[in-house]
Write a structure and sequence with these properties.
2 helices, 11 strands, six-stranded antiparallel sheet, 172 residues, 16% helix
């Protein structure tokens, strides 16, 4: 083997990052997450979330979830965040982060767009270190971002629980 050149570098890449607040029935989703994390197919402590988590497609067919997402879907299309292509809700799940729980730095590639929605007020923050952004945990706060952007949160050091929803949109 003859290597002519090896380059390890960083290059600029276009990304999407949107934050806002949506109307969402938080109690309903917290109750549904509590059911989902008790199910046999729950992903508790098996993923980048070092916490309790529903199955990855838990909310995909949930009409209340889809209805809550419609303003985000409209925004995606209105601002051409789907690059003029057809996309679909690939996965949507809920999580519960109790004392000492956190998420490992990760991304959702190959998703076109991913999202996180806070369901309750909590001091735990979702960090996006590559772009210097964060999402405060207040009911209805959301972030919509390019699936390749890494994100994480630090360990929950309080006795209060943090609940949230996450989802991935994929191109068809």
């Amino acid at each position: 083997m003859k290597v002519e050149q090896l380059i390890k570098s960083t290059m600029q890449r276009q990304y999407v990052f949107v934050t806002g607040k949506i109307e969402i029935p938080t109690k309903y989703f917290i109750d549904e997450i509590e059911k989902g994390i008790k199910a046999d197919n729950a992903e508790n402590f098996k993923t980048n979330l070092v916490s309790e988590m529903t199955e990855y497609h838990y909310f995909n067919q949930n009409k209340t979830f889809v209805k809550s997402m419609l303003p985000i879907f409209d925004y995606v299309e209105e601002h051409n965040l789907n690059e003029g292509k057809t996309y679909f809700l690939h996965s949507s799940w809920g999580f519960k982060q109790s004392f000492s729980h956190y998420s490992i730095k990760h991304n959702h590639a190959p998703a076109l767009l991913s999202g996180a929605i806070a369901l309750n007020e909590h001091e735990q923050t979702l960090y996006f270190p590559e772009i210097g952004k964060e999402l405060k945990c207040e009911p209805g706060n959301f972030a919509l971002f390019s699936g390749f952007i890494k994100h994480h949160n630090k360990r929950n050091i309080s006795d209060s629980v943090r609940y949230g929803l996450s989802f991935n949109l994929m191109l068809e």
